[in-house]
Amino acid sequence: MGPVQTAKPDWKTDDLELFENEAFKFFSRELTPHVEKWRDQGCVDRWAWTKTGEAGLLCMSMPEEYGGAGGTFAHEQVFMEQQIRAGVEGFGAGLHNCIVAPYILHYGTEEQKKRWLPRMASGELVGAIAMSEPGTGSDLQSVRTTALQEGNQYVVNGQKTFITNGQTANLIIIVCKTDPKEGAKGVSLMVVETDGADGFERGRNLKKLGHKAQDTSELFFNDVKIPTENLLGTEEGQGFYQLMQQLPQERHQIAVQGMAVIERALKLTIEYVKDRQAFGRPIMSFQNTQFKLAECKARATMARVFVDYCTGQLIDGKLDAVTASMSKMLLSDLENEIVDECLQLFGGYGYMDEYPISRMYTDARVQRIYGGTNEIMKLLIARSL
User: Fold this and answer.
1) How does strand 127-130 pair with strand 171-177?
2) What pLDDT shows up at residue 1?
3) Is residue 293 within 8 Å of 272, Cβ to Cβ?
4) Whole-angstrom Cα distance, residue 297 to residue 334?
5) Please, what sign has the CA dihedral across residues 306, 307, 312, 318?
6) Treating both helix axes as pointing N-terminal to C-terminal, what angle do 321-346 and 374-382 enclose, rounded to 10 degrees?
7) What values do phi and psi take at 217, rounded to 5?
8) Is the pTM here over 0.70, yes or no?
9) Mind listing the domains of the chain with CATH numbers?
10) Which class for 187: exposed (0-12), middle (13-18), buried (19 or more C-beta within 10 A)?
11) What is the DSSP letter of 59?
12) The dihedral sign for the CA sequence 65, 71, 72, 78
């Protein structure tokens, strides 16, 4: 038996199970061997994106007519789960696939979809979304970055921070104000192709507590001129609505990642305590170890049922903001708790960076912050009471 026991959800077809095996083989063969190098340099090599695109693993939930595989979020979930299972750190393809591409699919014009999505699917374009600013996190209607129209172009000015894929991305969706006098109604989403964009600068690749292989950056826009057709959609002032519509998938994605980390942490810990000896017998033989892991397995099994339920709702277009907030909050909290319990069972070795459990511990902490802090999730849930 594994660390989690649940029935296969209805949405997980036989084809998806085959894809699961192939995705794991791809990650293990092509990307896992390079993780140590990426941790040292603070960024995943650019070739990894192209190779993943060649394998058909980018933008799998995008329609075939736009270069995707015509799949659903189920394919993206399997992709993220197998990336984590294979120990591939720092590769921000989940954001590229599940956050950036859907904005273009759902709100872009036909010309925008044809211009950007096939190049995202091939890995030619790497996506990022620039929301947070030095003084603005979850309060997106208060962003200060502006995109003001001048003739047949917009001029973008502002600063963004904590941007995943920030050192690599060459297609960035920017949350900005097209009408600075307005609050939410003045927010629009602009798409910037950074290659050759005068006035665009990448700041520091920020040093972080965890996710050492992932580039997370400051971005600067100084009179960056983009054509008016780079407004996402057909009219200004729709950005806040667009963000709110897509946040449930972003937040559930965080829950999916948390669930995969929980399962990997339990698998590694169970293997370790069965092998590691203390006082002449395996650590697993001690009642404390058994009770700790039994509790973790029970809670993880319950969480897996909820995650798979939410995925089914998302695929059917029924995942509401409140349920997605619960998914994100509960799973990120549980991820941190279970990884902490697992690290304790590793003893001193759990604190050593060479052990995956140590890295999982530091990486897990941000899950309770990004995508909207868990305190914000509680406020959203409370409004439904």
Assistant:
1) parallel
2) 67
3) no
4) 11
5) positive
6) 140
7) -135, 165
8) yes
9) 14-125 (1.10.540.10), 128-237 (2.40.110.10), 241-382 (1.20.140.10)
10) buried
11) S
12) negative
The predicted model gives 1-6 an average pLDDT of: 82
183-225 residue pLDDT tens:
899 999 999 999 999 999 999 999 999 999 999 999 999 999 9
Average predicted confidence (pLDDT) for the chain: 96
Q: Give per-residue pLDDT as tens, 291-321.
A: 999 999 999 999 999 999 999 999 999 999 9
Q: Which of 89, 133, 236, 250 is labelled catalytic?
A: 250
For residues 51, 190, 253 and 210, what is the CA-based torsion angle, rounded to 10 degrees? Answer: 70
Q: Percentages helix, strand, coil for the chain, rounded to the nearest 5?
A: 55, 15, 30
CA distance 385 to 372: 20
- Count the neighbouring beta carbons within 10 Å of the beta carbon of residue 169: 27
Round to whole Å and give the CA distance between 114 and 135.
Answer: 35
Alpha-carbon radius of gyration of the chain: 21
Element (H, E) at 223: strand 216-227
On whether the CB atoms of residues 186 and 178 are closer than 8 A, the answer is: yes
Question: What's the rounded Cα separation, in Å, for the pair 131 and 201?
Answer: 16
Phi, psi of 208 (to 5 degrees): -130, 165
Whether pLDDT at 2 is above 80: no
Helix (H), strand (E) counts: the chain = 12, 9
The helix or strand, by DSSP H or E, that contains position 172, with its residue range, turns out to be strand 171-177
* pLDDT tens for each residue of 231-253: 999 899 999 999 999 999 999 99
The reported pLDDT for the residue numbered 3 is: 87
Tell me the backbone φ, ψ of residue 282, rounded to 5 degrees.
-60, 145
Q: Which of 193, 12, 23, 13 is nearest to 94 (CA)?
A: 23
- Both tokens of 220, joined, read 């600067």
Query: What residue has token string 């580039």?
Result: 215
250 catalytic, yes or no? yes
Structure tokens at 284: 């697993």
